[in-house]
Design goal:
The complex is a heterodimer. Chain A is an all-alpha fold. Chain A contains three helices and no strands. Helices cover 76% and strands 0% of the residues of chain A. In chain A, helix 1 packs antiparallel against helix 2 and helix 2 packs antiparallel against helix 3. Chain B has a two-stranded antiparallel ribbon. Classes of the chains: A mainly alpha, B mainly alpha. At the A-B interface, helix 1 of A face helix 27 of B.
Amino acid sequence: MSVVPISYYLVLSAVLFGLGAVAVVFKRNIITIFMAIELMLNAVNLAFVAFARAHGQLDGLVYVFFVIVVAAAEATVGLAIVITIMHNRQTLNVERVNLLKF
Amino acid sequence: MPLLNHIWIILALPLAGAAINGLLGKTWPKSIVNTVAVGSVSLAFLSVAELVREFFTLTPDQIPFVGNYFTWMTAGPFTIDFALQVDQLTVVMLLVVSFVGMLIHIYSTGYMAYEDGYYRFFSYLNLFMFFMLTLVLGANLIVMFVGWEGVGLCSYLLIGFYFLKKSAADAGKKAFIVTRLGDLGFTVGILLAFWTFSSLNFHDMFAKVSAMPSETMQHSGVLTAICVLLFIGAIGKSAQLPLYVWLPDAMEGPTPVSALIHAATMVTAGVYMVARMNPLFSRSPLAMLIVAIVGAVTAFYSATIGLVQTDIKKVLAYSTVSQLGYMFLGCGVGVYAAGIFHLMTHAFFKGLLFLAAGSVIHAVGGEQDMRKMGGLRKQIPVTYWTMLIGTLAIAGVPGFSGFFSKDEILDAAGSGPHANLTLWILGLAGAGLTSFYMFRLFFLTFFGESRYDHHKVHPHESPKNMTVPLMILALLSLGGGWVAAPHLVGGTDHFEAFLHPVFAAYAPQTAGIEQGVSLAGSAGESGGIAPSPALELFHAITGPPVIVALAGFLMAWWFYIRKSEVPEKLATSLHGPYELLLNKYWVDELYAAVFVRPLLWISTNVLWHVVDEGIIDGIVNGVARVARESGGQVRELQSGNTRSYATWVVVGAVGFTVLLLALLGMAVH
C-alpha cells in the first residue's frame, strides 16, 4: 500500500480554502457565506491533520479539536444572529444589511 | 531683636490681608472687610515701628541689616536670594509708606463706603502695600524689581477699578504700557549691572563700585550706561518727561488710590531707586546731570500745565509730576538726602491734598470740575483748614514742611558743588508756578460764590474716618519738616545726618568737594566767616524760593479773589499760549500721531490681518483641513457592505502571505 504524499493533502486543502474564500466574497446569502466559512475552517483542519501525520506529532491534532470547538460555538452565535436578522429585516441578503457605515 | 530677625512679617501681613479679602471677602459685610484690610496694614505699621525701634539698637557696623531667607534662583554663578535689608533709607521709606498707607486705608473706608467691589478695592490696596514694602526692603535689584513691577500691576488694577467706564480702563492700560517702556530700560540696566558687577546684591555691587574710579563728563563708561538705563525706568515709574503722560490719566482711579499710589508712594519709587543706587550715580557726572535736567525741566514744564487745568485732581496730578521733578533735581545735584526729604514731606502734603480733594469731591456729589465748586469754606470747615495747610506746605511757606525740603533742593541747585544756574532758575520758576496754581485751586474751591447746582448738591462735611486722616496728615505737613530746621540757623539737619551713612559709605573718594557735599548738612555752610544764626535764618525765610512763592500767592489772590474777571480776559488776549497749556502742549496728540497710530496701523494691517490671520491661522487651519479631508477620503472604506470588508480581509491575508514568502525566499538565499 503506497503512502499518499503530503503535497496531495495540502493541495486539496488549498483548493478547498480558496473555494471557501471565493464563496465568502461573492455569495450574498448569509447562510451560504456561513457554510463557506465552515469549508475554509475544515480546509485548515485537513492541512493540520496532514502535517500531524507527516511529522508524527500530536500538536496538529490538538489544534484541530480547538478549531472544531470554536467552529461549533461560532455556528451557535452566528445562527442566532442570522435568525435575528431574518426576524428584523425579512432578508438574508448581506447587500441589504448595510446600515452600519460612515 | 524679635522683628529684625523676621523682617518678612512686615510683608506677610498686607499680603495675607489681600489674600483673605480677595478670596473670601466677596460675600462678607463691609465691616469685616474693613477689619481685615485696615487691621493688616495697621499691624504692618506697628511692626515697622517695632522694627525701627530695634534698628536704633544696632551698632553702625551692623547696618545695613540683611535678612536672607532663602535662595530664590541659581544658574551657574548667578544667584539670587530672597533677601531683605534695613538701613536708614529703608527706615524712612518704611515709615512713610506704612504710615501714609494706613491713614489712606482708614480714609478709604469712608470714601468707598457706597461703592461696589468694596472687597476688591481693599484687596488690591493691601496687595499694593505688600509690593511697595517689598520694593523698599529688597536687598538686591531683583527683589526690588519684583516690588517695582508689582506696584505697577496694582496701579493698573486700581486705575481701572471702575473698569466698566471706558476711560478708566483705557487709563489703566495707558499707565501699564507707558511705564513698561521705562521698565525696558530698567531691565537692561539690571542685566548690564550684573554683567559689570557679577552680582545684584546692593552690598556686593557697592563694594565693587567703590573700587572703581569716578567717570568724567567726557569719558563716560559702563557706570553711566547703567545709571541712565536705570533712570529710564525711574522716568517711567515716577512720571518724568517724556513718559509722564500716564499719571494725569491715572486720576480716573478712586481718589484714595491717587493719594496713595499716584502721589505718596509708588511714583516716588524712582526717586528711592536713584537714592539707593547713589554709589553708581555719584560716580557718573553725566548721569547726574541727566537726572538733574530731566527733574528740573519736568518740574517747570508740568507746573505750567497745572496753571490752567480745571479738574481738581488733574491739577494735583500735574503738581505731583512737578514735585517728583524736584526730587530728581535734588538727587541730580548730589543732595540725595534732600531728595528723600522732599519725598517724605511730599508724601505728607500731597497725600493730604489728594485726600482733601477727595473730601471736596465727596461733598459736592462727585463733581471734579473746579468751575462748579466755589464758596465751600463754610460748609466743609475741616477739609478747608487741612487743605489750607497742605497748600501752604506745597507752596513752600516758611515753617511748613514743603519749605524745608524744597529750599534744600533749590539751595543745592543754586550753590552746591553741582550747582547749575539754568536748573536753579527752572526750579525757582516752577516753585512760583506751584504756588500760583495751588492757591488758584484753593481759591476756586473754597472762596468766591458757589457755582454748583444748589438744587442738586448739598455740600456736607465728610465722616470722621475721612477727616481724622486729614487732620493727622495736616499735622505732619505742618511739622514734618522741622527735623531739618536747625539747618537754617547753621545747626544740624537731623534728617540729613540720619541718612548720612547711606550716602557717605560708598561716596567717591577722589575729590574733597564731593566729600564736602554730603557733610555740608552736618558741618554747616562752608565758606569763610560763619554768618550769625539770625542772619542765616533771615536769608532762608526771605530767600528767592519764598519770594516767588509769595508772588505766586499774590497773583492767584489778584486773579481769583480780587479781580475774578482777569483770568477770562487773559485767556482771550493770550489765546495761543492758553490753548497750548489747556491742551497740555498737545503731547498726548503728538504721541498718538507719532507712536500710537502707526503702531496701531502696523498691528492691524500687518500683524493682525497678515501675520495672525494669514500665517498663524493659516497653519493651524491648514493642519485641520488636511486631517479633515484625508479623513473624508479614508472613511469611504467603511461602506457598510460586508462583502467588501471580506474582500479586504482576503486581500490583506494574501498580501501578507506573499510578503512572508518573499522574505523567506530572501532569507534562504
